[in-house]
Design a protein that fits this description.
Layout: H1 2-19, H2 21-29, E1 33-38, E2 40-41, E3 56-57, H3 59-71, E4 75-76, H4 79-88, E5 95-102, H5 105-117, E6 122-126, H6 128-132, H7 138-148, E7 151-156, E8 159-164, H8 168-184, H9 188-202, H10 207-213, H11 217-224, E9 229-233, H12 246-264, E10 270-272, H13 283-291, E11 296-302, E12 316-320, H14 331-336, H15 338-343
Parallel strand pairs: 1-5, 1-12, 2-3, 4-5, 5-6, 6-9, 10-11, 11-12
Antiparallel strand pairs: 7-8
Helix pairs in contact: 3-5, 7-8, 7-9, 12-13
The structure holds zinc ion.
């Protein structure tokens, strides 16, 4: 099903490119600006089984996007400037902002050098437990478990289930099934328990994943010292906020922010909701982020920015730079807004 959706998206992006429809749609749907969403930026890896590949782009693709934006004379701005332009309704020039979620070390090693070539700023949203070394990146633990297993056993919906994982295709199918199952579990503790059991059974040390991939506090502090870098908050534990009590949501927002401010000695004014789709961030979370005093908060809902986005500063949409679609021909499609307009049924703002 995921593969099917992925093929449909690819075909849709291709159709927009080849028909030139994105050029016709641009004046209506390109909006005033765009916030791009990335996770990892690093060279391509060889493994055939890479279920999280949509979360990583190659430095070359980032460079191509930056060069595309510069060639179109689109300003590349910080989240503070996104906020300011929306609030002050300064729309004479189109703008783009680059945001990277989770706080991966490759953001420093591969993204920052490319951003520097263009003197372009970036915002990295750090989950404080990831910087602490105690966080759990369960989707990567799941990838590691399945990569080394020929079969996986789990109780899915109370039923003992055995999933084949002998071939790359079977591994991908097993990943999709287990990923959907885990994301649907009632609480964060349930995900942790199930992943811990899978890791124990298959000899994966999940405690090392965060330390291996994410910047520590010391590293973040040095990184944040770069004039191009802004650090935002991404909660403490990287949990699905919509599944938490109001009290916990408040803590996840306020305490993560306080920890980052304390460690980096800089103000933190921007937030990204973990997972960020409509099952993880809705009206209640948007209001709580506003109440917590964040200037902006970004979702993973696809969309461009429009003047009316100023009324929804804690529900801002983004455009994903997705590792599955690293084709330079789609760059004008992504900046035209045509793809996200189709996705949103041609509504300009989707913030309910
Ligand atoms: Zn995240």
């Amino acid at each position: 099903m995921k593969q099917f959706r992925s093929n449909v998206i690819r075909a849709g992006l291709g159709a927009l490119y080849f028909t030139g429809a994105h050029v016709l749609l641009r004046p209506i749907f390109s909006g005033v600006g765009v916030i791009f969403m990335l996770h990892h930026v690093r060279p391509r890896r060889d493994a055939e089984f890479q279920p999280n590949r949509h979360l990583e782009v190659e430095p070359e693709f980032l460079r191509a996007m930056l060069s595309h934006l510069r060639s179109r004379d689109i300003d590349i701005v910080t989240m503070d400037q996104v906020h300011q332009r929306l609030v002050e309704r300064r729309f004479s020039r189109r703008f783009a902002c680059f945001t990277l979620d989770d706080g991966y070390r490759d953001n420093r090693d591969f993204a920052l050098p490319v951003m520097r070539e263009f003197d372009a700023p970036l915002t990295v949203y750090a989950a404080s437990d990831f910087a602490e070394g105690s966080g759990r990146l369960w989707w990567i633990a799941l990838e590691m478990v399945i990569a080394r297993a020929d079969a996986i056993e789990a109780r899915i919906g109370g039923v003992a289930t055995r999933l084949d994982a002998a071939t790359p295709a079977a591994k991908q199918a097993a990943f999709d099934r287990l990923h959907d199952w885990l994301r649907d579990l009632p609480g964060e503790h349930d995900i942790r328990r199930e992943i811990a059991a899978l890791c124990a059974r298959h000899g994966v040390d999940e405690t090392m994943i965060g330390r291996d991939l994410c910047m520590s506090w010391d590293e973040l502090k040095a990184f944040a010292g770069d004039p191009l870098v802004t650090i935002g908050a991404h909660t403490i534990t990287h949990c699905n906020l919509a599944r938490q009590s109001e009290e916990i949501v408040h803590q996840e927002m306020a305490i993560s922010r306080a920890r980052i401010e304390d460690a980096l000695q800089r103000p933190v004014q921007h937030l990204a909701y973990p997972y960020g789709d409509r099952n993880a961030a809705g009206a209640r979370e948007f209001a709580l982020a506003r109440a917590a005093g964040f200037k902006t908060a970004v979702t993973t809902r696809p969309g461009m920015l429009f003047p009316e986005s100023a009324d929804h500063l804690t529900a801002l949409p983004r455009v994903s730079l997705n590792g599955n679609y690293q084709d330079e021909r789609i760059l004008p499609v992504l900046t035209s807004g045509a793809a996200t307009a189709m996705w949103n049924g041609f509504r300009r703002v989707n913030a309910a």
